[in-house]
Design brief:
5-stranded mixed sheet; 353 residues; Nucleotidyltransferase, domain 5; single chain
């Protein structure tokens, strides 16, 4: 029996370079505010942890106020508070979790520290207008979480019960996109730009390796692909000044990454005997990945559920939705003295309670 839940929950997400706050009520996302730091970090070609933490300190209060305002909710109406507890950048995580714990302490409300990847894991079930985390047609599934820092496959056996199958052993897919983008002179983050350029390119123009695609495990590796592109550019410098060749290069690199992701995801789903596949995380916004994963699932007669683009990247709505779901199902709250978990594994007991 789930817990009756009449009042809203406020959530924070500050695990990397997005400052986000959201208000969730009975599964409904009443507001979801995200302040991006892309422009700040683009100058450095990647996220600078100390700058990210300072920007979180600057943004968190106005973002939280706006989330409450849009939801028409006052502090006193809050039932609980949540924040991403890990994994992530230590200094960035600290801003969000300490703010959430302080609010919970002052209001005497329960606090929930949420695993960032667990939130991504269930974000494909947030849908509709207004968005609602809806498990009415939930079924066991194979989930691909793919982002700038992580690439992993997870077997979701039931609501709030899951098992990590495999992860990246070096560069994540998003990291590969960004590093290849840097090699060809694209600004950070390069993934969306490669996606746009690839749309007009030939994905078969250049043959790049598909690392670990034939390995029967569920792990990923993309550092070799990045190195292959580096050597290709060294040996073919004219590509950098030829717009058509550059688009072909982007399409070919993207094809290699997507091929690995789709092949290993479908293979794992077939092995496990599940008939539903989900995808989430920032890289799941990639149009080629969404198209090819959907097509592969259709061929195998799998249902597919892709996180809506607004919930693919880091956001507090997914944190709040999972926290509220746990509260309603009597999952023990997190101590107000709990620390951050920068390297928190998804397979740990705390992540699957």
């Amino acid at each position: 029996m789930s817990k009756t839940f009449f009042m809203p929950l406020l959530a924070f997400e500050t695990s990397c370079d997005e400052t986000s706050a959201a208000v969730v009520h009975q599964g409904r996302v009443l507001s979801s505010i995200v302040a991006s730091q892309i422009a700040l970090h683009a100058e450095y070609g990647g996220v600078v942890p100390e700058l990210a933490a300072r920007e979180h300190l600057h943004n968190l209060l106005p973002v939280a106020r706006e989330a409450l305002r849009q939801a028409s909710v006052s502090n006193e109406q809050l039932e609980a508070v949540a924040a991403a507890q890990g994994p992530g950048l230590p200094s960035a995580l600290m801003v969000g979790i300490k703010a959430a714990q302080a609010v919970a302490f002052v209001l005497r409300r329960p606090f929930f520290g949420i695993h960032h990847h667990e939130a991504h894991l269930y974000s494909p079930w947030i849908r509709g207008n207004p968005p609602v985390m809806d498990f009415s047609d939930f079924q066991p599934n194979l989930s691909l979480i793919v982002s700038g820092g992580h690439t992993m496959l997870v077997h979701v056996q039931a609501e709030l019960k899951h098992r990590l199958l495999g992860a990246t052993v070096d560069d994540a897919a998003g990291e590969c996109f960004d590093k290849v983008g840097k090699l060809i002179g694209l600004a950070y983050p390069a993934g969306p730009q490669i996606d746009r350029l690839a749309e007009q390119g030939n994905p078969k123009a250049f043959d790049f390796p598909r690392p670990m695609i034939n390995d029967q495990n569920d792990d990923f590796s993309f550092s070799g692909l990045k190195t292959s592109v580096r050597y290709f550019l060294r040996d073919n410098p004219a590509v950098m000044t030829d717009g058509r060749c550059l688009r072909d290069l982007c399409a070919s690199v993207q094809a290699a990454i997507v091929d690995v992701l789709v092949t290993k995801t479908i293979r794992a789903a077939k092995r496990l005997g599940v008939t539903c596949v989900t995808a989430s995380g920032g890289v799941s916004c990639n149009r080629a990945l969404r198209k090819q994963l959907s097509a592969a699932c259709a061929r195998e007669r799998f249902s597919v559920r892709l996180a809506d683009p607004e919930f693919c990247t880091d956001n507090a709505a997914m944190i709040g939705a999972v926290a509220e779901h746990k509260f309603r199902h009597h999952v023990k709250e997190t101590s107000l003295d709990a620390d951050i978990h920068p390297n928190w594994s998804l397979c740990s007991e705390e992540a699957v309670r």
